[in-house]
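Progress against Task 2.4 (sequence-to-structure conversion) is shown through the following example record, which the project officer requested during the mid-term review.
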Amino acid sequence: MASEYLATTAVAITKHDTTVQPKFAAIYVGVGGDVKVKDAAGNTTTFKNAQAGSILPIANVELIYATDTSATALVGLK
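Structure tokens generated for the chain above:
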């Protein structure tokens, strides 16, 4: 993640297949695995084997799916 970006809020993410998430600027991966998301444009993407401690710099994610997301301890950064 770019050094000029600093999050001011961190929120634990509850994965769910239909509940829309708040708009995060990035997702911190606490325990590694796959992270399946749907963005504001309706595109669904799976980040395969996201490593523990990594930050996925993906903004405006609407869904972080429980189905097909094996990573845990996800934190939304704003």
